Amino acid sequence: MLRKFLAFLAYNIYSGCVLWAFDWNTAYRFDSNMVSRLEHTGFDTPPNQWGWGNHYVWRLLAAGVSTLFGGFVAGAVARTRGGIIAAVSNVPSIALWAWIIYILGFENIPTIYGDQEITSHTGMVVISVIAIPLTTLLALLGGQLGADAQRDEFGEEGVLGIAGYHWFWLFLPIYFYTVNCLIPITTFLTFSFLYSDVSILAGIINFIMFLVAVASFIPLGWVYSRLRNPAESFKQSLAGAGINFLILVLGFAFVGAVQYAGQWLLEKMS
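Above: the chain's sequence. Below: its structure in token form.
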């Protein structure tokens, strides 16, 4: 019973951290002109708190990716019946989608996005209806994949090969690294940079930012590999924790600096 409860927590924490990373990036990804305009007027609410606006497909993509990832971790924690446990863990998400359908579809309550008031919610209601069965299936799939990976690759060895208690803090670096990398990765994968009015140099810069964003997960992989080799003493454990912290912080700072420099160049060229 305890393992099932921990799987429930793991699902909602890890799916939540990826979902929040998508949410954080929404305005910066799609409405950079409005962000720039409002920042010069002293607008109070920061763009990372604007919500999803009318970016319905982005919201559905975020739900799908976060559900699959959260389900995988939950399935690994559960070890057996991972798909069923992850699907049950998705019930709070289903309740949220149902609430969105009621509030936006039946009550038709306006929402605020930046300095805009959105009164038409058809797109979000449709996406919410689709999301309920979609996230249920993805949670089922992710959970089963996680349970299979745990059984076939790691057996009784922790959770995905590392001590279970590490998963109580790993969601933090995963969240920050995902926030840092979503825009360059999605910009490149959707080829949206090809439809702008800037030179081919901008496409090259976007490609470099994409490569850096993908490579930025190397520090996470490095820390994961270090965690798979537990320390033999408290002193080694303390030293290892410090080294892991430095790897994550310096890796994050380097990637952030490169992304900031690339974005600055793109703004100068636009």
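The mean pLDDT is 87.
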